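Many introductory courses stop at the sequence. We go one step further.
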Amino acid sequence: MIKKHLIVLFVVAAAVTLVSQKSFAWTCSAMEIVQVSQNSTWLKNVSGADCGNIANGEQQYFVLKPILSDKLLAILLTATSLDKTVWVHAADDVQGSIIDIISIKK
């Protein structure tokens, strides 16, 4: 009986460890576009607060999700030409994370 409980405890602990090591989706409410290329962008956090590991005023490099890159690039270029900030959703808040949603802020 105790052996079964130990096995269950071990399985639960392993699952919690795997979940805690997985990167979680990340968002930032106000990013300024610093640079845009065909499949990536540099963005600066201008939200007034930290966005995950990205401090306010800090820049980060992101890759555009390949199957959405044309649409995301169009949004980035439109926001740049209008001098607007963007709301961003990415896989994580580390260098080279993949952006899958961008929206232009009012």
